[in-house]
Amino acid sequence: MIIQCSSCEKKFSVPDAAITATGRLVQCSSCGNKWTQYPVQEKPKIPKIPKTIQPKIQKKPKDKIIKKKGPIPYSKEYMQQKWGTSLKNYAADTGLSKKTSGKIKVAKQKNIKIKEKPGFGFFNYIITYSIFFIFLVGILNFEKSRLSRKFPILEPYIEHFFESLEIFKILILDFFR
Asked: Predicted confidence band at 92 (pLDDT cuts at 50, 70, 90)?
């Protein structure tokens, strides 16, 4: 049985046999409050009567009405209607298309999922840019002396850049140790 202090609302677990039908004087161990505890009477459980199940009426979906405002832009009908021009089948007129005898069979395809090609990807961009950056640093390291002779003002900046790269390299190596 679980009893609860009325002042501090702390809960205690007590064996059912410890509290008799006449009650027992108990004291809260955290706040010192005293009260008479009677056995907790459980509420009688009333069996639930299942309600009558009413069949669900399924609503019919409304038919979608497709309003055709006009011919599709840049179709033959559209060009004839808007500009008064007629489009000729260039391939048929010049003999570029194969002539078929009889009717052409058209296969109907249903529920075809077209898989889109994945893009270049985030990690591929990171790899590409890091390779490009390493390439540029290599060229700068190779041409360091020539650049500092032609542009002496750049020498402290180049030295600082390479010192920063060395520190960064040490940090990375210490991280993986």
From this structure: low
Angle between helices 122-142 and 155-175 in degrees, nearest 10 = 130
Tokens of 159: 């030295």
Domain span including residue 144:
122-175
| pLDDT for res 58 | 73
Whether the CB-CB separation of 23 and 14 falls below 8 Å is answered with no
Distance from C-alpha of 36 to C-alpha of 18, rounded to nearest angstrom: 13
- The residues near 20 (Cβ < 8 Å, ≥ 6 apart) are 39
Question: Is 140 a domain residue?
Answer: yes
Q: What is the DSSP string of 87-141?
A: ---HHHHHT-SPP--SPPP-----SPPPPPPP-S-HHHHHHHHHHHHHHHHHHHH
What is the pTM assigned to this prediction?
Answer: 0.33
Q: Does residue 146 lie within any of the structural domains?
A: yes
